[in-house]
Amino acid sequence: MFSHLNADGNPAMVDVGGKAVTRRTARARSVVSLNAEIMQHLNGADILTKKGPVFQTAIIAGTMAAKRTDDLIPLCHSLGLDNCQITITTEGNDALIDCLVSTEGKTGVEMEALVGASVAALTIYDMCKAFSHDIVIHEIKLIEKTGGKRDFKRD
């Protein structure tokens, strides 16, 4: 049975009232493929545009989104995050976005990490589209999680 359906098959938030509070972490990654035209604007560790520094803005947007995940995903629990760290590195024409989130709680932070990485990727798209629309966001995925019933790590 899917965890977000009640006995009648209707959507329902999972009751975490009986779960123990544990340290929960999750790391997600998104990849934004840019092109040479956009990457020629890479100056040091960031792309500078008239709107401002792309990666720095994406980090702020991703952090804000991770903190508001329950406003975006209907059945997510409201969580107070202890930490949200977003890093952006480049590899060729790709921007690799990693979002690491943690909390002490009764439910995991996978969705917060995924939302943070996703919104950071969308922000890069938004800020670079004036250069070119030849931008692809792909590989939004959970890399690892700890805490709860079982840990997960993608090889």
Automatic annotation (TrEMBL):
Enzyme class, broadest EC rank: lyase
UniProtKB keywords: Lyase, Molybdenum cofactor biosynthesis
Alphabetical GO biological process terms: Mo-molybdopterin cofactor biosynthetic process
Name under which the protein is recorded: cyclic pyranopterin monophosphate synthase
Pathway the protein acts in: Cofactor biosynthesis; molybdopterin biosynthesis
InterPro entries documented for this protein: MoaC, MoaC_bact/euk, MoaC_sf, MoCo_biosynth_MoaA/MoaC, Mopterin_CF_biosynth-C_dom
Catalytic activity annotation: (8S)-3',8-cyclo-7,8-dihydroguanosine 5'-triphosphate = cyclic pyranopterin phosphate + diphosphate
Molecular function in Gene Ontology: cyclic pyranopterin monophosphate synthase activity; GTP 3',8'-cyclase activity
Enzyme Commission code(s) on record: 4.6.1.17
SUPFAM superfamilies: Molybdenum cofactor biosynthesis protein C, MoaC (SSF55040)
Transmembrane segments: none
Superkingdom as given in the UniProt entry: Bacteria
Stretches assigned to the Molybdopterin cofactor biosynthesis C (MoaC) domain: 13-148
